Amino acid sequence: MSRGLANELLPGSPHVHSANAAENAESSLPWARFSSWLECVCVVTFDLELGQAIELVYPHDVKLTEKEMCFPGCLGDTQFSFRLRQSVGRRGSWFGEEDAYSRDAPVTLQVKLAHFYGYVYFRQVKDASVKRGYFQKSLVLVSRLPYVHLFQSLLQIIAPEYFEKLEPCLEAVCNEIDQWQSPVPGLTLNLPVMGVVMQVRIPSKNDKPGGSPEKQAQKEVGNLLPAPMMLPTIHELDLFKCFQSFLIHLQMLWELMLLGEPVVVMAPSPTVSSETVLALVSSIAPLRYCCDYRPYFTIHDTEFKEYTTRTQAPPNVILGVTNPFFIKTFQSWPHIIRLGELKMSGDLPKQVKVKKLAKLKTLDTKPGIYTAHKMFLQKDKSLIKRLLKGIQRKRPSEVQSAILRRHLLELTQSFIIPLERYLASLMPLQRSVTPWKTPPQIRPFSQEEFMGTLEHAGPQLTSVLKGDWVGLYRKFFRSPNFDGWYRLRHREMTQKLECLHLEVICDADLLGWTKDKSEVEIVDLVLKLREKLMKAGKQQLPVKEGVLEKLEGYLQTVISSLPEDLQTVLHRY
């Protein structure tokens, strides 16, 4: 199978050309199951004199362009993540535009064909046999799936073994992954690799928001054998660990994420950089973060010039960086989070302060949140008290993270529910959908009309937080996150209308309608109905069971009522 990928697959080189989609569509082809999880696995070695070289790629027919890239300079083993943009060119993937995975997955875990994720295990150890005395290598998993916890857990199993046994070990791992069942939302899967079985549950859009992935998995294990290693989540991070140095400012950062503001995270390591960026992006779930984000960004990224130009306003993107020289580059950006090594103040993590942007000038800039952002909502002091009490009582980090995640979920839902309620009012009444007319249009979204609903049906119904909710909505309307949310919801509503139309046609007396109609009118009905059925199949519309089959039967009955010459033409068409 020729995958024909010309990839640059590390933080400094974000270009990926995909193979032809048709090649991956056939499950019988080699590496088809592997492709549903990973694009490829590669090994990159770093020489202090020669620079970086891609040493090995699996599958072997994936072609990589070698280019100098930036790696973290640290002893020991380091894990981090990055995200890269796919090159312009042919799109090809196991995932299609209308694939079943994205249709059934939560919006935050749907595949975006324009981007890839890289999951890295970097090792640097002293080695006297190497010139300048260091062995430096990275094992990188490249995937379209944002399953950070799953793939970092996978790397913890395979990377140490790979560094001991090298290529034969990697080949065996890739062959094992090629036996895994493809990710299907709602299923609990056993994934064997190197003598370990990871049990994971693929989240579904039908899951209860804020529900425990572990409990969901237990419901569906059924006849699966007990797995030695159960992952409680495939994508969630330890939010408390990620946010512990700025817990008191979490609500401000939630507002910045909601509004899609340009943000730079300057961290002491690629691990902290990537985890902080991914945690911030997840803070507005179940709303999808629709701007670009780079968990680990370096001067070698091909978007470096695009994202650092001073001739225009900073783009709507969140960048995670470690190089202190970026301070000068990003001086014009409105929001910079400077993180240092975690320091404790007694039992409590020392909290960074909000500072003026004017103070961000030197390379030894102190940790802090450098911004002029004025919060729209008042801080929720009860959350801070609850978390601080948890620290004093030595509450486990996973429990603290669950408290944080629940708080952020409820905050986002309080913001989104009024929008959802208003959007539902724009939908035509079900009785206005009739079989013989095109479905009525969804009414256009009016910002002012929506604002008029807030007094009686605003966030105050579900949130105790006071503040300028109206101002927050007005700014949200200008953000890519609103545009992405509205496009997605409008598309879902349009599909629902299409489903309703198909169902009322199915309940109509088609044969009775044709009795007093001319052949031209009947042929027109056949062609339109056939087009609707094809569209429903292609878009995998969620119509009631049996509707499409029943309509197909009606269609054949109507065609058989026509003269034979017309029947022949219509069967060919």
Explained architecture:
Helix 4 (148-165) runs antiparallel to helix 5, helix 12 runs antiparallel to helix 13 and helix 16 (480-507) crosses helix 19 (547-560). The protein has helices at residues 21-25, 32-35, 100-104, 148-165, 167-177, 213-220, 239-243, 250-258, 270-282, 304-308, 326-329, 381-392, 397-425, 447-457, 469-476, 480-507, 510-514, 519-538, 547-560, 564-572; strands spanning 6-8, 15-16, 40-47, 51-58, 63-64, 76-85, 115-126, 134-143, 188-193, 196-201, 229-230, 263-266, 292-294, 317-321, 335-338, 344-345, 348-349, 354-355, 368-371. The chain has 20 helices and 19 strands. The protein is globular, with a radius of gyration of 27 Å. Helices cover 39% and strands 17% of the residues. The protein is α/β, with parallel strands linked by helices and 573 residues long. Residues 1-27 and 65-73 have low confidence and may be disordered. Strands 13-14-12-15-19-18 form a six-stranded mixed β-sheet, with helices on one face. The chain has a five-stranded antiparallel β-sheet with strand order 4-3-8-7-6.
